[in-house]
Design goal:
Pfam families: DUF179. Belongs to the UPF0301 (AlgH) family. It comes from Pseudoalteromonas rhizosphaerae. InterPro entries: AlgH-like. This is UPF0301 protein ACI2JU_10065. This protein has about 180 residues and is an alpha+beta fold. Strands 1, 2, 3, 4, 5, 6, 7, 8, 9 and 10 form a ten-stranded mixed β-sheet that branches. The mean pLDDT is about 95.
Length: about 180
């Protein structure tokens, strides 16, 4: 089995699950036990500053970071926050996922997000998308997802409403040309 860690899953136009319709999921972990990813293009009606207030972390509301949208990362454990961020020295609680992306659930990192010590780029998700052993592979066989290598530019610098289209565009074809019906030769 080839691991899909550090790849995007792009929901096919035929995906009808309301949570994953037009979703782009960054795969953080994928092994023989299953997969875990974070949806990076489903904002919720809460800002970073609001979230930090809810979990009683002091923050500077005057910063741009405080006004950034938080995302619904997936339907599993929606009370748990994850921070995807650009590499930052000294963040020992963060795990490197690639040379350009780290992940953490550390309150220390959350507390730094509206300060000068914040990573240069970050997004916060509440919850994650999880697949049990063999489930993701089955969804791939059913043509539910397209797969591309993850691009930090899409995570951190692409406007939210354009992330699905930009991820699809990296494949080099017009998504409108895809049929919503799956076929197998």
């Amino acid at each position: 089995m080839q691991s899909l860690e550090n790849h995007f899953l792009i929901a096919m136009p035929s995906m009808q699950d309301p949570f994953f319709k037009r979703a782009v999921a960054y795969i953080c972990e994928h092994n023989e036990d299953g997969a875990m990813g974070l949806v990076i293009n489903q904002p919720i009606n809460i800002t970073v500053g609001d979230l930090l207030d809810k979990i009683e972390i002091d923050n500077d509301k005057s910063t741009h970071a405080a006004s950034v949208a938080v995302f619904a990362g997936g339907p599993v454990k929606t009370d748990r926050g994850f921070v995807l961020h650009s590499p930052k020295a000294g963040y020992s609680a963060s795990q490197e996922l690639s040379s350009e992306i780290m992940i953490t659930t550390s309150k220390d990192v959350l507390a730094s997000l509206t300060t000068a010590q914040a990573p240069e780029q970050f997004i916060i998700t509440l919850g994650y998308a999880g697949w049990e052993q063999g489930q993701l592979e089955q969804e791939l066989l059913e043509n539910s997802w397209l797969i591309i290598k993850a691009d930090p530019e899409i995570i951190f610098n692409t406007p939210i409403e354009q992330r699905w289209e930009k991820a699809v565009a990296t494949l080099g074809f017009d998504i409108s040309q895809l049929s919503s019906e799956a076929g197998h030769a």
